[in-house]
């Protein structure tokens, strides 16, 4: 029987381990922290009985992941739960851009822009499974669905601000800007529309669900499935060098390219080392977890029922804030992402005390305290929020990195989505998972297709390893 070692138990490390175990490989996962999960962990913070997600919150690409959909994870405890409203983006006049799973229902709420929204996203949502199968793997393959891929690609390569010109209302433009901002890129740059198009299409195909009990349920189910197929997981094991690892035919690293350099040392070919050292990191996330009595008093009713809310104002305001953080400047009004998972999963609350998950986009390595700015942005669209807040727990960019070393500088997406790096990450290579060290592969979100609790980076890396086993 072949043997493999996986370093890191985030969603990608566990996905890689499961993919290998299903093919009969004996797998051991080594995790430095005391618990598994990487960015997909959950638990109580300051108020007993109130469950918070530590990083990842909503999972439009998780429920639609080509790999995760192949697995019977419901047998291992994973249950998806959907809110009544998937996504809302409030504006100062009390209105909001609103996305429901149904394209037609969303179009009805967007008024004059409904027809244009439907014309763009109805075909993309219908094609989502085919498109996901193409773009959630390296670009170096022969497309099996060229028409669907081309339809997506024509929109994805555009700057988000250019694509948004097809809509006239502030609500539709802001709704798209909020999803595009997940790329942590200036919205006027090429390819900045890609993530917005992908996440919106995923939302219309599968919705924006949460995992019952917390995002840790996703990695928990993967771990249980791995153990059921003979895999082992050891926590509290910090690996500092490949030389410390037990003998194995394959080693998969769920770490950043820079960490891979530290682990491999002189074993890395010079060209690979240089590419990994040049790998650019994204801006940071400053996280603020709240416990709110009675929920957030949004001025807009749809926001009160939305599982996810993008706070940032108009398209122009979102574009300005994202441009500032990429330039290393803290905006006065940053983009703030808000998740109200308890609306779909009431078991996370304790009575009328509810967990509210937020993070702001800030410059990479931002040293300041963004908590007041985050609360001010929320209060802007939900007056009276501060009076309802029972507890606040903030996590700076430095603390994000201590929580998960892959999040250096607060970069939770593992690498800047520059036009080149978004497509050819972590380096230009036919097989981007190979490190150049025989039998050693990179399987983190720094590899294609990038960030998200979808497990595809790990699955693709495992397939690369299996070709050599």
Automatic annotation (TrEMBL):
InterPro entries: FAD/NAD-bd_sf (IPR036188). PANTHER family: DEHYDROGENASE-RELATED, PHYTOENE DEHYDROGENASE. This is NAD(P)/FAD-dependent oxidoreductase. It comes from the Bacteria. It comes from Saccharopolyspora erythraea (Streptomyces erythraeus).
